[in-house]
Design brief:
The chain is α/β, with parallel strands linked by helices. The chain is built from 18 helices and 14 strands. The protein is globular, with a radius of gyration of 22 Å. Belongs to the UDP-glycosyltransferase family.
């Protein structure tokens, strides 16, 4: 009988999709029977994965199956700022259902381990009760992993709120972290978001291992610090397995309007704007971006969606109203060199297209790795969570991005059209910054692909991970 492996992603399309890709990577040798426990999103209207995608995985011969956990309605409708509280309470409410699912699986399969998304680590309680070892999967950067491991130490060392500090935060393996790049929900220790995140980080030390979606060549300093125990000075660090880049690749559909339009554009001439599965911007900011794009003179493809409040992440984005959201006449004036797509776009397919020369991105880690996988430089526009850290790393450490200089991370003012124009010109034009970012993106592309090939650093980490998982099948 094959060893059973259960993967538990956090809710949301990005978390589930990368967890599925991780399952495919781990089970390349078909040595496991993998079950993915999927959670519906607590945010109404947020999709998980298309049924056709799940069916294609089930038919792939990789012995990967899906089991949906019950849908639970949140007992209260939280304020927009309480999104982290919503997620933490929702996942906690699923622990008994995870335990029941594991019991059913154990009746027919020897479940040797759980692989749990770091946002869902509360469900490790269910595995502990059943004697199943748990591994934590960090779908984000090595920098964030180092920060998370070190946060309990920072919490003990720094008595004040982080927002009251006057100097950068020092974390082993990371460049000094300016306070403005810290996730906004973590700046005040009394906040619900901080308390939840701190408790989440404390669970890492007790995991059987930590799987992280990055690769040694991209983030060498922090991975060395993590593996060497410098980020967890008061406890042995679990084995760390950098198996990335794990990216979700889609098949190109030439009939899709975005792809058909790109097919008619010159190579490397189009800047692509997309802000993730949940990202939206307030209407005044959308208008400034439109004016900046128009003035830049560059070709563009812009995936734009909206929600009633750009800060309310308890509501899913909806299709944009191009007439109402954009400056009057903008679509008509730019129709010869731009396409505004008012809904979710096939991001990896677009990034893989030869017409794409740059990416204005919210810098979610999935999007970051996808852009680097195809060697596309980035103009960072972080919106929330750890995206500011990712943006800083892309500009300062990796070098594959051009900074949007006047980005106001406190959210107190708009990024004006003039700065948008300047950023796009610097990214897409023949500037020293643009050339450097393009060169570094191409280097990252080559390094990432080499890492996952036989003999590469991530391939070797995957071999170690597989043997570690199978060691529990004794």
């Amino acid at each position: 009988m094959k060893a059973g492996l259960v993967i538990i992603p956090a809710p949301g399309r990005g978390h589930i999709a990368v967890a599925v890709e991780l399952a495919k990577v781990i089970n390349q040798g078909n040595r496991f029977s993998v079950t993915i426990l999927t959670m519906a999103s607590p945010v109404p209207g947020v999709p998980t994965l298309p049924d056709s995608y799940a069916a294609s995985i089930a038919a792939s011969g990789l012995d990967i199956h899906f089991l949906d956990l019950p849908t639970i309605d949140p007992q209260e409708k939280p304020a927009p700022v309480a999104f982290t509280g919503l997620i933490s309470r929702y996942i906690a409410s699923l622990v008994p259902h995870v335990k029941n699912a594991l019991l059913r699986l154990q009746s027919s399969t020897r479940v040797v381990a759980l692989v749990v998304d770091f946002f869902a680590t509360t469900v490790i309680e269910a595995g502990d009760e059943l004697g199943i070892p748990s591994y934590i999967f960090s779908p984000s950067s090595g920098n964030l992993l180092g920060f998370m491991l070190y946060l309990p130490t920072l919490d003990a060392k720094i008595e004040s709120d982080f927002e009251d500090l006057e100097e950068d935060i020092e974390i082993p393996g990371l460049s000094p972290l300016p306070l403005l790049h810290l996730p906004a929900s973590l700046t005040k220790k009394s906040s619900e978001g901080y308390k939840w995140f701190l408790e989440l980080t404390r669970r890492f030390r007790y995991a059987e291992g930590i799987i992280v979606n990055t690769f040694r060549e991209l983030e060498p300093a922090v991975l060395e610090a993590v593996s060497g125990g410098r980020c967890l000075p008061d406890h042995p660090t679990p084995p760390v397995f950098p198996v990335g880049p794990v990216v979700v690749l889609e098949e190109r559909d030439p009939s899709h309007p975005c792809i058909a339009w790109l097919d008619s554009q010159p190579p490397g001439s189009v800047v692509f704007l997309c802000f993730g599965s949940m990202g939206t911007l307030p209407e005044p900011q959308v208008r400034e971006i439109a004016l900046g794009l128009e003035r830049s003179g560059h070709r563009f493809l812009w995936s734009i969606r909206t929600r009633r409040s750009s800060d309310d992440f308890t509501v899913a984005p909806t299709e944009a109203d191009l007439e109402g959201d954009l400056p009057e006449g903008f679509v008509e004036r730019t129709k010869d060199r731009g396409l505004v797509w008012p809904r979710w776009a096939p991001q990896t397919v677009i990034l893989s297209h030869e017409a794409i020369g740059g990416f204005v991105s919210h810098c979610g880690w999935n999007s970051t790795l996808e852009s680097l996988w195809f060697g596309v430089p980035i103009l960072p526009w972080p919106l929330r969570a750890e995206q500011r850290m990712n943006a800083l790393e892309l500009v300062r450490d990796i070098g594959a991005a051009v900074e949007l200089i006047k980005m106001d991370y406190k959210g107190q003012s708009l990024v004006g059209a003039a700065e948008v124009e300047r950023g796009v010109r610097r990214l897409m034009g023949e500037t020293e910054e643009g050339r450097k970012a393009r060169g570094k993106a191409v280097e990252a592309r080559a390094a990432g692909r080499a890492a996952v090939e036989a003999g590469g650093s991530s391939s070797d980490a995957l071999t170690r991970l597989t043997e570690h998982l199978l060691s529990h099948n004794q």
